[in-house]
Amino acid sequence: MGKRLAGIFWSLLFLAVPVLGVATFAIAPAYDHWLPKDVSEHGASIDSLFYFILALTGVVFVVTEVLLFWFMWKYDEAKNQGEATYIQGSHTLEVVWTIIPAATLLFLAIYQMNAWADVKMRRPAMSPTVEVVARQFEWRLRYPGRDATLGTADDLFLVNDLHLPIDEDVLVQLKSMDVLHSFFLPNVRIKQDAVPGMKIPVWFKAREAGSYDIVCAELCGWGHYKMKGRVTFEPRAQFEAWLERKYAEQGTTQPPPEAADVATAQ
Amino acid sequence: MNTPFAMLRFTLLLAVVVTAVGCGKTPPASFRLNMVQATKTAAPESGMEKPWATWARERQGQVATILEAMYGTPDDPVALAETGLDLAKLKLAAGPVRSDIVGRKNGLYREHCVHCHGISGDGMGPTAAFLNPYPRDYRPGKFKFKGTWRDARPGREDLTRVLHEGIPGSSMPSFALLPPAQVDALVEYVRYLSMRGETELALYTYAEQELGVDDTLPTTKEFLVDEILTPIVEKWQGAEDARIPIASVPGNVDFTKPGDDPANRESVARGRALFHGDGGCVKCHGVTALGDGQANDYDDWNKVIVEWSKEVTGGLGSTQDDAGRTAWLHAAADVIEGDALRPRTIPPRNLRLGLYRGGRRPVDLYRRLYTGINGAPMPGVGPSGPGGKGSVADAEIWHIVNYIRSLPYEFDGELGADRPMVAKDRF
Amino acid sequence: MTSFCRSCVPLACLVVATSAGCGPRRVSAPVADAAAALTIREGLASTAAAAVTGGEAAVVGTGWASLKGRFVFAGDPGQPKPLAVDKDTEVCGKSSKLFDRSLRVDTSTKGLADVVVFVRKSSRVKNPVPDAPQMFDQKNCEFLAPVFAARVGQPIDVRNSDPVGHNTNIDGTSFNQLIPAGQGTTYKPDTEMGAPKAVTCNIHPWMKAYVIFRKDGYVAVSSGDGSFAIPDLPAGEPLEFQVWHARATGSGGGVVLERPDLKWNPKGRFVITLQADEVKDLGTLEVPAGSLGT
Fold first, then answer.
1. pTM of this structure
2. For the residues of A98-138, what is the DSSP string, one character each?
């Protein structure tokens, strides 16, 4: 009797896995534990890929877990006194459950190629809007300045406070000053490792104004967890006005009265 | 356990786990004394009855007690009314990281600063030994990047600016994204730690100069507040009035345009002449401005260790051979070894990088040139005090600033094929 | 062989390693006495009127006197070490070689130069602060005065008589200024120093001198033959004099002499009360061989 109870207990425990798994995913959006708000143009295609894979793997997950439960329940030692049959394996079964996943993966690989190309290959022909240099443990920014060329004397140097225009293609030139970092904008569905020695272009287009996080997604040292920046999307006119304000601050020859001397990000 | 030694192995494993994890509660954080200065000023005198180590320990204990009376502990700061410190801000910054009853974050210093700057603001936190340059030691009250006269204290806006911008080229990050109230609290805590460090030094100086071996430090209000604390506080409160005057920019300088623009050509040429001439800059920064003029000087924080270390290893030249002196020198050597960072020379800045630690605005460069950099060998070309005379006229300093700003972009400068990598190709 | 637990050896080492820990051994620092600290804090917070300390009323006399003497060095100063001159060598050390001047003993008279004698506290001062500037010059990449004493408020003409630029860095003051070749600037000290501080040049790091600023101006530096004189001292009150030398091994640079008639203090001080119009000659003050690091 004890053994049967034990068998029931373990089977139900394993049934709880798919049940709770599905339940978590079902309830999560109601608690705002879901994908971050997407303000980018290409984000929709990435999210739809995510949902597609989630659905596909979810179905397979549920089926396999239920099967696991069923076999545990049905073939529990306490109920089956007979001997197990020894078989050499089923060649057909092995072929089937290799071909089907392989085909699925191949399908996925081809299905996502367009989305990948949009984000990683189809670079817009433009000069960088900003150069982001990742550094332990901050994001150093360099805007090209009024002459629209990076690397000249009128560049604008800032830290952590990235402003970008909306409804326009934005090209970020990503570099690292020391170790591997990863430029991750969750709300724009952009993530790109910053590799020391490389200049990596990152492009996207934001649709909606607002302030969102920049986080580092590649372990870079003890301060990795707090290597946070802030990206603010705003209409082009406001963006230019903000740039002008920052130019004026960078060219300050007289310290303004105390309250305005320290530029808290506006 | 059915194999021989299984019990022994299990016990050893358990011992490893226990020693690694430790047992008992973590003791509350406490300030450390400035052991280098404590031993330096505790020279034994002939005719001491107690062994030197006991005597020194008692003296240091008195100092620690007085400091706790005046400044409290890292978890529970105290701000005497005479210091002018805002206790509410200190409480926000002090203590372990936690939320207070209204949901504000407390323990800011411990969250953001302590791992480099240390619990006492001594610049010897756990990560400090791995950093170049070392984090600032607040205790002598010297700060490099400010807009006041060289020996004056920084104003609140100078400290806020450093927190806001960080120090590019060092490991000091930018805290621009912290709410202003938190930045204010941290600035106040830095001032608090600096005042505490200066009080400690003043107590050691007093003990060395005025006390005999059997005397104890007085703890009266006249002594602690009027004699020790007031001069320190006056310097801090006088910082706002000690700002250097900023001359108006000459007409032929346009900081909105690059250095090779016709609007600036004359000014940059004048700046170059001053840089190589009366400004004396090439002596240390080199004719190439790469900072290769010399490499064997120390900043003040490291120089103290270097010079004291030389005296200690030289036995302070004494031929006396008594136990007190030997104990003192041994203790001093131990402290230099274990309680001070290994000294590093300070190279003159490479001006071709376009990386300016104190800020890249023209007014920041003007300030560095005017007073020099307090704590560093960099001298000033402006007057040393109000009403003084500098080696370069105030308005001319702007020409040097213009020249310096053009240096990283001087593609076809005099250096030709040997030119250093310019800012365009660098970060 | 079978009775030896092989895996216990690395485990035992691991126990030792974790308990010993790794990392620099910081010196154990003393802890504060929390209860005593609270008592002191209460005392500081109290707004009670400061208790009259009941000390002796300050003795103030009348009249003025002078003090003079001559320091001699009983030991062997050895040969002065040459300085490592590695910059601007066409100018520095050209007219004469540069040596370490921290211990200057006159070979014939055994007079000890560069000893600073100053009054620690005086109640009255005879002469007001003069307006005429004192000269502090540097030539041949060397400060002309190895030890320089000045009065707080008296202007100092800091000059550079070399064909190369120098920066004169007075430790502990706001003065670290670049002085171009052949030029000078004026500096007016505004704070008193408790002990002489170093003056250096960051461009030429071997350059070193000492400087002391005193409010009352009762300070003298012994000359080449060891003699010094301080005139116009307040008479009729006990004056505590501090004797300082750059190489002294006493605490804070105080020079300790064996002169029981002067009640010499281990910090290098003695107390003396002068009579009005007296010219007190301390005679030959012999500095023992061991009290200066040689």
1. 0.89
2. HHHHHHHHHHHHHHTHHHHHHHHT---SS--SEEEEEETTE
